[in-house]
Amino acid sequence: MITGKIRMKTMLCRTWKIFFPGLSFLLFLACAGFLAGCALKDPKALASPPAMPSSWSAEIHAQGMVPDENWWRTFDSSGLEDLLKEALAASPDMAMAVERVVQAETQLRIAGASLFPSLNINGGSSWRRNWASGGKTGSTESSTLSLGASYEVDVWGKVAADVRAADALFSAAAYDEEAVRLSLMAGVATGYFQVLALEKRLDIARDNLAIANRVLDFVNSRYRHGSATELDVKRQQSAVLSQEATCLSLEEQYAQQLSALAILVGRAPQDFQVRTEAFQDLRIPEVGAYLPSDLLLRRPDIARAEAQITASEANVTVARAAFFPSIQLSGSGGLSSTALLSLSGPQSSLGLSAAIAQTLLDGGRRRNQVEAAESRLREQVETYRKVILTALKEVEDGLSRAGFSARQMALQEDVVEKASRSLFLAELRYREGADDLLTLLEAQRSLFQAEDQAVQLRLGRLNAALDLYKVLGGGWQKEAEGG
């Protein structure tokens, strides 16, 4: 009876020794699964966006259309559309922005790879010969092949937070690409409009130079007949030279602007030529505005700043998770034999292991990393707030500028009409001897300045509409979460 009890205890002990490692491993996994429910959560630094005004202070065009994705077509310019296509395909700025998106996407895939176990395989074969001191020799041969796997249990959510941060940075890069695209298109349009305006200003300057030369011929004729003085001749010669200098200055500005436009388009300025059109043929669109709150979803730079906050929130979680132990699971299996380059008659092996590691003392490194991550998060929140305030200012300024420039241009058109009539009367009266040359010169100067100012004000109206398209996001819209 006693012998039977001893045998029973012996069998139970052997069974427990056999199954204890596997049972312990299962208990370990169960504990790890339970702890995973206690994983760290990202801090919510931005529960809601900053308060937005309900309306704009500046005047909004009642008939204006809010920007859409083809906003540039409202200018009715085929030359602009051709340049934009070329710029988007060849601009270095656009290519760099695309590559930044590729890099961010690659980093996201790298971070996501940590969610999966790693596998590795090893194999080898060796031969060894030994010579003993007594003259006996011996040799050994062996071959091995093994497969190993390891996996870090993301109990505290550190790996998942890394993935969230990388995903947010990928979104930020994509938003930045959209911001670069909009900025590039607006820059090309601005440059093209300036080229057309300079062409028009050159035409006006050359027309005024022709008028000045015509008056000089008449003054010389009167001087030869004794009805004008040498002073009159010198004054008119001075007016001609001054107008020639103005033409040269405008030609220089035109060449420089053309070179700048070439760089935006992605071409060498030496061979760059642009197919231009009449400046007066450009249509000036009336641009309406979204509600201020809509800017949060309509401007890619605001979306980028928000994505940066999301990445910083995840980075705080990563830094906090460093305070908790890491758990590593690994397993391996393999074959081995006593033959060279062969696995005949192999011996099999299988191993499982679990390891836990915890840093006890690091001189405050982890604590400082958490503080640094939290500081960067607060900085990103303030950056986001500043981006929004800047956007509100830019739209407000754009609406005001559009209204003022329209009124200024209407007044200037009346000025040009009256200056042109004044020059006609002044030249007629000078020919009849009723007025002196100074009156004629002043009329010439006034007409040139009025016409030149009219072109610049028209350019200002075009740029005001263009700026509104840009600061309103150019028709871009952030996709819904999960969309």
Would you write up a description of this structure?
This protein is of the alpha+beta class and 483 residues long. The protein has nine helices and four strands; from the N terminus they run H-H-H-E-E-H-H-H-H-E-E-H-H. A four-stranded antiparallel sheet has the order 1-2-3-4, with no helix packed on it. Helix 2 (78-90) packs across helix 4 (158-224) and helix 3 runs antiparallel to helix 4. The protein is elongated and about 135 Å long. The two termini are 75 Å apart. 29% of the residues are buried. The model is unreliable at 1-23, 25-30 and 32-37 (pLDDT under 50).
Proportion of strand residues: 5-15%
Largest sheet: 4 strands, antiparallel
CA-to-CA gap between the ends?
A: 75 Å
- Average pLDDT confidence is 86
Structural class of the secondary structure composition?
alpha+beta
For the secondary structure, the number of strands is 4
Rg, alpha carbons:
40 Å
What is the share of helical residues? 55-70%
- Helices and strands, in order, run as HHHEEHHHHEEHH
Shape: elongated
Low-pLDDT parts are: 1-23, 25-30, 32-37
Q: How many H/I helical runs? A: 9
Strand order of the largest sheet: 1-2-3-4
